[in-house]
Specification:
Largest sheet of chain C: 7 strands, mixed
Largest interface: A-C, 63 and 52 residues
Distance between the termini of chain B: 57 Å
CATH topology of the largest domain in chain C: Rossmann fold
Structural class of chain B: mainly alpha
Shape of chain C: globular
Structural class of chain C: alpha/beta
Oligomer: heterotrimer
Order of helices and strands of chain C: HEHEEHEHEEHEHEHEHEHEHHHHEEEE
CATH superfamily of the largest domain in chain C: Response regulator
Strand order of the largest sheet of chain B: 1-4
Helix content of chain C: 40-55%
CATH topology of chain B: ABC transporter involved in vitamin B12 uptake, BtuC
Radius of gyration of chain B: 19 Å
Shape of chain B: globular
Strand content of chain C: 15-25%
CATH class of the largest domain in chain C: Alpha Beta
Number of domains of chain B: 1
Number of helices of chain B: 11
Number of helices of chain C: 13
CATH architecture of chain B: Orthogonal Bundle
CATH architecture of the largest domain in chain C: 3-Layer(aba) Sandwich
Chains: A mainly alpha (405), B mainly alpha (291), C alpha/beta (395)
Helix content of chain B: over 70%
Distance between the termini of chain C: 73 Å
Radius of gyration of chain C: 22 Å
Order of helices and strands of chain B: HHHHEEEHHHHEHHH
Strand content of chain B: under 5%
Chain lengths: 405, 291, 395
């Protein structure tokens, strides 16, 4: 295609929608009741979309079936927490292990340079947090590289079970009391900056401007944007080639080993950042949270959104979190319609309904919400409709145009 | 001495229980190339059914009833959740399996109301005996023999009956066997029925030893049994059984040392080592990519 | 593509309807215009602490049936309990907490389990709500904040009490400690027990088991082999029932010591008819307050849901008594504040003094109840009942 650098209409609209949603969040946050569950859903949804997109990069775009996402999130969350807990409260948090073994805090480091008061303190906090988030990604990526050396030679299900196993091993290591000086063993890490620390306060500590739900959206948005750029680059095309046919990809001169490792590291890097964001969302970090059930949850989101669709993963994350945490909650309590007591409603019914909904989606909408299309494709559809009709051809066409570029 | 005997007894019995679950995994994988994540939860449901059935019925009725219901559930799961996806990509089928597992756990949670349930005492096998100074349940001693007997019967079935030949044919080549007139769907159903039956029998042995049933009871044994199946070479029944015994014994021995923290981690580490050295497990057949 | 878009829209529409239904369930005033004050019940109803959380909630419900109104500044207000299930899971706790905050509760009670309480703490803090912990015994719950209070004793105290009991009663020299891997509560208690027991000149062997374990025979064998005098396992109810049953089948002779979580009728049932020795430290012993005992037994036996929540019989768990006391303390605080405003209640709560069924309740500067004795109960395995053993102090 000729317009190489220019944005097509669909992408432009997508970006406008994303920006509009961001502004709506910002406005809502500062106008309506800030304790509404809506904001919990937005925060958790933002975190999960990033992790789901990172998993999609691996499973949907490179065709590597990995179930290790929770393990990399765990690494990211711990790295972030250990780097940012203020030094003066470390000993209370590590009380079981007679104080912390690791006494460096990025936030304190910047506070020593810029000062800890007012604006300078806020800037130091933001810088410290950003450094720690990036470090969280890097630690996860390094581990991914090391784990990838033996594991990436395995195929499909074997790869899945091996990565799942690695995540379980990591969890056991972080819970080991011999490492308690660093990881705090079974005890939770807490006291580090969370999303609510991004709210701007006046001198008396009163919140004047809320940012706590917008910040996770911004960070996750930037990361997802980077992943999209990557997918559309020559690396991204190599990944897709590997997914579609390993043997012919290799024959075309794509190094399987190098590209698989790269995709695995990048995916883990963003999963690590996702873990750091999750730590900020949950305000405590404990290894017990990062179970294989969490990986399955993220995998479900990827499939519901559509394997191979970034926008699908994002939409599915928000819908999934909203359903499980918010919209279906009334099913857990006895309800009355007039004076009629609705049967079956009691604790636990919400999750039964939720799992039935998931089964329906999996069975009847097997391509997920978006298939392998993006939001931008919907707006570009008119143009494409001239030369093809079905989704299969659409896919073929996209692959062809990708190759032409 | 007592300690060593006792540990080995525990390990062998645990391995035997894993083996019964692992056979279900390995047979389904052999035919459908599907990791049936719901298998461990089916095993848990079998436990819960017996808890509720035995509350109102005598054991000699409730145990066969439980086995029947579990087999029926296994059959229904296959028909409802896997059959519609026969032509779909493998990842969709696997996510359907995860969905079923999720559904069964939540259903169990809803029914039990989150309370742990005490498994009924089954006469004779839950009595205690003493072997070389180590006290244990009779079920511990019975398990390995029962497993061997069942595996023998299963091998006979697969090697010498019509349905067994059909199963082997389907496992070897799905499309060709269909062309040769094998009724694929009934073969798959029979596979699920056998797997569910073994899970139901396994649940009786397992919960007699560890008599509390919670909605998460199936998760760990399920995962361990799957690891055992992969370890032994998934698709191979003797492989699954040997893998299960190795995993069960290793796990028990590790728990007896100072590194008990890593008992689960060790299982996975062992698996990864085996996969890296011999990517298709101990008894797995070599696969070649067709270009 | 059009199809998918249509489905998406339909989905959004449907769930939108759900959302509005959900919103309607919390009207600001009662049905016939009477004034209402809401108390949030932040308890697990599912997950591995589900059974305990339900029993604690039961105490609050009983208290609510007994004292359904409260006098606020001269006016009678109806007290309404608002429930949120935290699923015993820290990743779900903030959302459950936010749900309570969104329903305009004035004070929060709970939770059973320290981890979820810590995870939700931040949400309550940002909303300016006071939270009153009922049986979350980990020091980190109240440390370093001014909004979390609790009416129970702390783990360092409980660990010490049990170590003293082991040494005094059994003259134990060697103890075996077993906790769930990665569980803050278990590992904390094991560590405090170890410190106190070693200070008394004993030695400790400790192990951790992975989450969702069922097989404890190796650990029990190991404890037997090491010649340990007591077996200390401060674990969740489901694990405790397994440990008791398996100790019996392996013929273990040592006494089993447990913390407040083991004070549960399911654990009793697991030991029924065996010769297991089981001792637990707890907040309340049945028989401590005859009026309360009679009242709650009647409540449980006349209400099928309550009976199910209590595990099918009417043995009173200490957590139920604690839930009852927590509700009463909350009412006291609302009365003292003379308003339904969360901030005023938070300030008033710190000064509340109350004599509950579990003893005197008074808060210190950190927000912990001042308590210096724990009850030790022994299991009467023949009748599946608890019998009072002794009152033990930390000294």
């Amino acid at each position: 295609m000729t317009k190489k650098k220019k944005l097509d209409k669909g992408s432009l609209i997508t970006i406008i929608i994303a920006a509009a949603l961001l502004i709506v969040t910002l406005v809502l946050e500062n106008t309506i009741n800030a304790n509404s569950l809506l904001f919990t859903v937005i925060r958790k949804g933002a975190v999960y979309s990033l992790v789901a997109v990172s998993m999609n990069l691996l499973n949907g775009f490179t065709g590597l079936f990995s179930l290790g996402q929770a393990g990399f999130m765990l690494l990211g969350a711990y790295t972030y927490a250990i780097l940012t807990i203020p030094t003066d409260i470390r000993d209370t948090i590590y009380y079981l292990y007679q104080g912390a073994g690791f006494r460096f805090s990025t936030v304190d480091f910047f506070k020593n340079i810029f000062g800890a008061e007012d604006t300078a303190g806020f800037v130091s906090m933001v810088l410290g947090v950003l450094i720690a988030i990036i470090a969280a990604g890097i630690v996860a990526a390094i581990f991914a590289f090391l784990i990838g050396l033996p594991v990436l030679r395995l195929k499909s299900d074997y790869l899945a079970i091996a990565t799942l196993g690695f995540a379980e091993i990591l969890r056991a290591i972080f819970q080991w009391d011999k490492l308690g000086k660093v990881t705090n063993g079974a005890n939770a890490l807490r006291g580090y900056p969370t999303f609510s620390d991004f709210n701007i306060t006046d001198a008396s500590g009163k919140i004047v401007f809320r940012l706590s739900s917008t910040i996770p959206l911004i960070i996750a948005g930037i990361c997802i944007f980077v992943i999209i750029l990557l997918i559309n680059s020559s690396y991204g095309r190599a990944f897709k080639a590997i997914r579609d046919d390993e043997v012919s990809a290799e024959a075309m001169g794509i190094s399987l080993e190098k590209h698989k490792s790269l995709s695995f590291c990048i995916s883990s890097f963003f999963a690590g950042i996702g873990g750091a964001l999750f730590a900020m969302f949950a305000s405590t970090v404990q290894a017990k949270t990062f179970t294989s059930a969490m990986t399955y949850e993220i995998f479900l989101i990827v499939v519901i959104g559509g394997i191979g669709s970034v926008s699908g993963s994002c939409i599915a994350s928000f819908l999934y979190i909203a359903c499980s945490e918010w919209w279906l909650r009334f099913l857990d309590n006895t309800q009355y319609i007039g004076s009629f007591k609705v049967p079956l409603l009691r604790n636990g019914f919400r999750m039964v309904v939720f799992s039935v909904v998931i089964m329906i989606i999996v069975l009847f909408f097997r391509h997920g919400i978006m298939g392998n299309n993006e939001i931008s494709d919907i707006f570009n559809r008119k143009k494409k409709k001239i030369d093809e009709n079905g989704t299969e051809e659409n896919k073929m066409h996209r692959r062809l145009t990708d190759n032409e570029k | 001495m007592e300690f060593v005997v006792s540990q080995i007894l525990s390990g062998v019995s645990l391995g035997g229980q894993y083996a019964l679950i692992a056979i279900g995994y390995t047979m389904v994988y052999g035919i459908l190339r599907l990791i049936n994540f719901a298998h461990g939860d089916l095993f848990m449901i079998a436990g819960i059914i017996l808890v509720y059935a035995s509350a109102s019925l005598p054991l000699f009725i409730s145990i066969p009833l439980m086995i029947l219901l579990t087999v029926l559930l296994g059959f229904v799961i296959e028909r409802a959740a896997y059959k519609p996806l026969r032509s779909a990509p493998r990842m969709s089928v696997m996510i359907s399996a995860i969905g079923v597992s999720y559904l069964l756990q939540n259903l169990a949670l809803y029914i039990t109301g989150g309370q742990p349930k005490t498994y009924p005492r089954i006469p004779w096998i839950s009595e205690t005996i003493t072997i070389l100074g180590a006290t244990t349940h009779i079920v511990t001693v019975v398990t390995p023999f029962l497993v061997i007997a069942l595996v023998f019967a299963l091998t006979m079935l697969i090697n010498h009956t019509k349905i067994g030949i059909a199963m082997r044919a389907v496992a070897k080549d799905f499309e060709t066997s269909r062309l040769m007139g094998v009724k694929i769907n009934s073969v798959i159903s029979v596979t699920f029925i056998i797997g569910s039956f073994l899970a139901a029998v396994g649940s009786v042995l397992y919960f007699t030893n560890y008599p509390t049933v919670i909605p998460m009871s199936g998760a760990m044994p399920g995962l361990k049994a799957f690891v055992a199946a992969v370890f032994g070479g998934i698709g191979s029944i003797p492989g699954a059984v040997i893998g299960a015994f190795i995993i069960g014994i290793c796990e028990t021995l590790i728990k007896g040392t100072d590194y008990s923290v890593f008992s689960d981690a060790f299982t996975f580490a062992l698996l990864i080592v085996i996969l890296v050295v011999k990517p298709t497990g101990i008894f797995g057949e070599k696969t070649t990519d067709k270009v | 593509m059009k199809k998918f878009f249509a489905i998406l829209m339909a989905l959004v529409l449907i769930v939108g309807c759900f959302a509005s239904c959900g919103g309607n369930t919390a009207p600001d005033a009662g049905n016939d215009g009477e004034k209402v004050v809401r108390i949030g019940v932040f308890e697990p109803a599912s997950g591995d602490s589900g059974a305990g959380g339900k029993k604690e909630t039961l105490g609050m419900q009983y208290a609510n049936s007994k004292f359904p109104t409260v006098n606020v500044g001269g006016e009678e207000y109806k007290v309404e309990l608002v429930y949120a299930d935290n699923g015993s899971d820290q990743s779900k706790a903030p959302a459950a907490a936010a749900e309570l905050v969104g329903k305009n509760v004035s004070i929060v009670l709970g939770s059973y389990g320290s981890g979820v309480s810590i995870a939700a703490s931040e949400t309550f803090k940002n909303a300016g709500l006071a939270a009153l912990g009922v049986t979350c015994t980990n020091p980190n719950v109240t440390a370093g904040n001014d909004h979390y209070f609790r009416i129970c004793f702390l783990d360092p105290f409980q660990g010490t009490v049990l170590a003293n009991f082991a040494a005094d009663k059994f003259g134990a020299k060697k103890a075996y400690c077993l906790g769930e891997l990665g569980n803050e509560y278990d590992q904390g208690l094991v560590s405090f027990f170890k410190t106190a027991f070693e200070a008394k000149g004993g030695t400790v062997v400790s192990d951790s088991f992975p989450t969702n374990s069922s097989d404890f025979s190796s650990y029990i064998n190991k404890a037997k082999n090491e010649g340990c005098d007591v077996f200390f396992c401060p674990v969740s109810i489901a694990y405790a029932t397994q440990i008791v049953a398996q100790s019996n089948s392996l013929g273990a002779k040592f006494p089993i010591l447990g913390s407040d979580t083991l004070d549960d009728n399911m654990v009793l049932d697991a030991g029924k008819g065996t010769d297991i020795q089981l001792y637990v430290s707890t907040f309340y012993s049945e028989g401590g307050n005859a009026e309360f005992d009679a009242g709650i037994k009647e409540y449980i036996n006349t209400n099928s849901e309550a009976l199910a929540a209590n595990g099918g019989n009417d043995t009173i768990s200490a957590v139920t008594a604690m839930g009852y006391d927590a509700y009463c303390v909350a009412l006291k605080a609302i009365e003292a504040a003379g308003s339904t405003d969360a901030g005023a209640i938070k300030t008033a709560l710190a000064g509340v003094e109350y004599t509950g069924v579990s003893g005197e309740i008074k808060f210190d500067a950190t927000g912990d109840a001042v308590r210096d004795t724990a009850y030790i109960k022994a299991a009467d395995t023949a009748n599946a009942a608890w019998k009072f053993e002794t009152q033990q102090t930390a000294a």
